[in-house]
Amino acid sequence: MNHLEKIVNNIRIKSPLVQNITNYVVMNSTANALLAIGASPVMAHAIEETEDIVTISSSLVINMGTLSEKWVDSMLFATKKAKETATPFVFDPVGVGASKYRTATALKIIAAAIPDVIRGNASEIMVLAQQASSSKGVDSTMLAADAVSGAIELSKKLNNTVVVSGQVDYIITGDRVNTISNGSTLMSKVTGMGCSATAIIGACIAIEPDVHLACTAAMAIMGIAGDMAAELSKGPGSFQVHFLDSLYLLTDDILKDKIKLNV
Ligand SMILES: Nc1ncnc2c1ncn2[C@@H]1O[C@H](COP(=O)(O)OP(=O)(O)OP(=O)(O)O)[C@@H](O)[C@H]1O
Ligand SMILES: Cc1ncsc1CCO
Ligand SMILES: [Mg+2]
């Protein structure tokens, strides 16, 4: 069995606990996505319990979608504890560039503890790579391909993995670039698909120490579940239901058959 397929199986076997400090919009949908793929989500943002939860978790997801100062304190404390306990963490800089507060907060989080993975859409990654100064909101106005050179620079500067999502997903670790071309346009018509991608990255880095490979598996899982769901859906409403079912029904064999990977 190929390594990517093993990651799918291992999530099901090990059911890693994935701690999320995430946004109000997607808390439910990303918890469901994690459960459907076989991981065990916990959404815990009170600073009083952060240390305990990080200590028992296999990975940490930090998503700044709906920010406020108390949550930022919890995020900074959680990433510090993650570093102390060698717990891998992924950061989703939702809407960075849309406001001065978002940009300052994203930079503060990255400066305090470098995330093992940063996953964003093209606009967000271009702001972090200083190739753009602002963005429209939480949706990208750019193509993922436009963000690749900046993402490579960012990944080299931080010595981590940067994932740019879009019609094509780019998984970038320095000069290593994998692409995944699965997925459907319907995914951009449902809120929180990017946040789900980040959460699934959390599940994959929880069980796979090769972060580049783990992120490739995560984006393949997202894209293939998106392909399967789109075939059954009439629009965004039914897509959400079919997407969860597809994550649940995804097997190592389906991944092997459907993956559109370029290395
Ligand atoms: N046009 C498309 N074709 C195929 N897949 C897509 C398309 N648009 C988005 N996706 C997929 O949807 C998921 C989310 O990516 P996207 O870039 O839209 O994230 P995002 O903008 O951060 O979303 P959100 O902030 O709403 O959570 C990824 O898995 C990506 O591959
Ligand atoms: C729509 C929206 N606004 C803040 S977070 C979020 C979820 C998608 O990123
Ligand atoms: Mg997003």
Structural class: alpha/beta
What CATH calls the topology is UDP-N-acetylmuramoyl-L-alanine:D-glutamate ligase
Strand content: 15-25%
Shape annotation: globular
Would you write up a description of this structure?
- The structure is a single chain.
- The protein is α/β, with parallel strands linked by helices and 263 residues long.
- The protein has one domain (3-262): UDP-N-acetylmuramoyl-L-alanine:D-glutamate ligase.
- The chain has eleven helices and nine strands.
- The protein has helices at residues 3-14, 27-37, 47-56, 69-84, 100-112, 122-128, 148-158, 193-207, 211-232, 236-249, 252-258; strands at 17-21, 40-43, 59-63, 89-92, 117-121, 161-165, 169-173, 176-180, 261-262.
- Strands 2-1-3-4-5-6-7-8-9 form a nine-stranded mixed beta sheet, sandwiched between helices.
- Helix 1 (3-14) crosses helix 9 (211-232).
- The chain is globular.
- The chain starts with a helix and ends with a strand.
- Bound molecules: adenosine-5'-triphosphate, 2-(4-methyl-thiazol-5-yl)-ethanol and magnesium ion.
- Magnesium ion binds at residues 94, 121, 138, 194-195.
Give descriptors for this structure.
binds magnesium ion, metal-binding, binds adenosine-5'-triphosphate, alpha/beta, transferase, 263 residues, binds 2-(4-methyl-thiazol-5-yl)-ethanol
